[in-house]
Amino acid sequence: MFRLHVCLLALVPTLPLLAVPAGAIAGGHWAFQPLASPPVPAVRDAAWPKTEPDNFFLARLEQEGRHPAPSTDRRTLLRRVTYDLTGLPPTVAELDAFLADTSPGAFSAAVERLLASPAYGEKWGREWLDVARYADTAGETADVPLPHAWRYRNWIIQAFNDDLPYDEFVRWQLAGDLLAADGPPEQAADKTVATGFLAVARRFGFNIEQDIHLTYEDAIDTTGKAFMGLTLGCARCHDHKYDPVSTRDYYGLYGILQSTRLPYSGCEKSPRPRDLVAIATPEGRRLRTPWEAEKTAADAAVKKAEADLAALAGDFAASVPVVIAQGTLAPGAAATWPPEEAAGRLAVAEGETLQLTILPRANFGADATGLDWTISETGGEKRQWSLAGGFTPDPAHPVGAWAVLDVEKDPRLCLHYDAEFEKTPGMAAWRGVDLWPSLLVNTRTEPVKFQTLTMPPRSAAVHPGPRGGVAVAWQSPVGGAISIRLVVSEIDPGGDGVDWKLERRPGLGATLERQRPLVLASLEAVKKLAETARREPAADLAFAVAEAKPVNARIQKKGEPKDPGAEVPRKLPDLFGGALIPDAAGSGRRELADWLTRGPARDLTARVMVNRLWQGHFGEGLVTTPNDFGTRGQPPSDPALLDFLAGKFIASGWSVKAMHRLLLSSAAWQRDSAVHDTASAFPRRRLTAEEIRDTLLLVSGTLDRTPGQAHPFPAETGWAFTQHGPFAAVYESNRRSVYLMVQRTRRHPFLALFDGADPNTSTPVRSQSTVPTQALYFLNDPFVHSQAKALAARLQQAAPDEDARLELATRELYGRPATDEEHRLMATFLTDTAAAIPSLTEPERSIETRAAWLRVLFGTSELLYVD
After folding, report:
1. Which of 332, 702, 726 is nearest to 495 (CA)?
2. For residues 405 and 509, is the Cβ–Cβ distance under 8 A?
3. Which of 63, 682, 775, 794 could form a disulfide with 671 if both were Cys (CB 3.0 to 4.6 A apart)?
């Protein structure tokens, strides 16, 4: 669509140019006039035209005393149309089937097959991405990645495959997020993604927010070039020197962009992206539906566990405590109980519980309280129970005689065990669902520093929770006499004192045993819910735009934002009777999109796209400056034909595929490319960079036909790219070249070598160079070597001898049988090459020599050019 081809003769003879003086007003320039309705010209050779455009074409030739070249052969025709519509060569099977089908509709059937192929959207999507200056990086000094831009690329490809009407194609790219509300709901994500056209505008400088005016200029200028064929950016500093676009027009559009929230890409000054737009893609919904069901089940399990625990509330209420001792601990103080040994002697029943409760006085976060609590059996076996050494790391079994309780409401066991609490070696903790309340135990024989605490060896401490206290309970395994030794000390240097209370709770032990499995079930349910929450599918994000607060821009004198002039209301250009954007309309992007496709600029919009389609098939547009239909651009070589095609385009419902069918079925497009005296031949063209690479992948059998998605960029959390250390990467892939990562400041080596589009600016026509490094590429590059070797191995399996393999290779590469001369040259080449590598054994030697011969075939003009 947008490439410069080597032409043997110009497609259409050039008429004398209309003289348009610099600064001509809109009323005097052809591009700004309403579409004419030219009659289809009559021609002397009435048998030659196949379509109405042929009459325009032939009439011009007859006027000059020239005639069209004859039709090309069918082999060349299929190769030409297959590359034109898919960017790939026909396969041997496709060529054989086409040559065998001699019916009148054979070519039309081939066109329909190619238009229905996913490869069609990949070819023509790449053509539009040239114009839209698509890239996967931002372009500012650090050239940070754009991890979500690929969605716009893939949307463009799908839009061509779906034959989205071109007027909607335009509207979605400028205002899709606003149109999404119009429905249907399943289109909302695509419409939002389509605004990537604006979002991928280039960022500039070290601080992209400081240089945002340059990004707005890029968006305005690309909008003008892509849809109107006008250089609107020229009006940034002053009224356009040549076209009827004023500085007020420019800043009227600037206000529309300024009222739009562009996603923040990140830059050296502030590397984290933000303001990306969440979308609901089919894939996202597919992943989210089972997750939501799992989360619903996990929520229900947590609620059931809570209900089961709450059912024990009556048991706790029936357990009437008897206070043994209580007190208040001043900040930094310690209390010892009993004050006399006799006071600490008690008689307990088996299963009876002693509960020590610590209650915070003010700031729970600074109330770590040390507990040194030992209970000794005064008779019987003289057993002893120490709090610091009484806990085991197995929550499924009783922890000796001890338990830690959350006493915010009814006491609840804390059974969650952390062997290295907050990753502190030697520090263990028993806690509930939350971090606090907790029992902390230093299990080591030396002090352990934990947060602001220093825990003595083999010591224990408790920390209350944010809503209440913490308790430690000892459940007596014996019946008989015991003695108690208890030291309570505030060990947190920021503490403000605690209240403590020691109680006997006769019925608590049995209740805690009933509670234990329910608490474990609750912990498992909460854990399951947390794990489910962590697995929540990430929101699908698009590098797209959204509405911002509507504002009007001020003229920047000489384009300098630090020198503001008068305010300009948001408006459409006066070129076709511009209009102000109502305050209630928001940014005005919807009004701009409608103005281009349904308003007074519609005819120009249609002319520009039809010219791109003509260029894509004939190598050169009717207007040879496809991004500039202004007075400094070239006038159309056939204005009547251009208007006729634009009218047909609109009448078809803006169908791009319908225009393909019309142009490809014309006798003009089906001409031979060879020179025939004074005949007008079809222009021969070189393959684009993407077509070359994709062809090598296809013929080698290594082409991955699945669509590309996101690139393996580094995680955003680790971005530290700078002007002196910018992002740079080449991600190898066997997918089609449209899916390669496109970087702005450091282009992909292959695309740079073979004249790929410059992603820094709208590229309406590919440049073409012929340099020695291109020829050397086919001899030396590892990619070429790998594809040649893959094809050599495939030929080894597919054909019995070298002559048969050459026949298959030339049919794969050129679509024709091998010549006698090629057989002779190949035999000599293979013999000489095999002698040069005696160290290899069969079949490696055969594959290597054949691969060397294939590299020669890869670099030939017959492969690299389409006749």
Report:
1. 332
2. no
3. 682
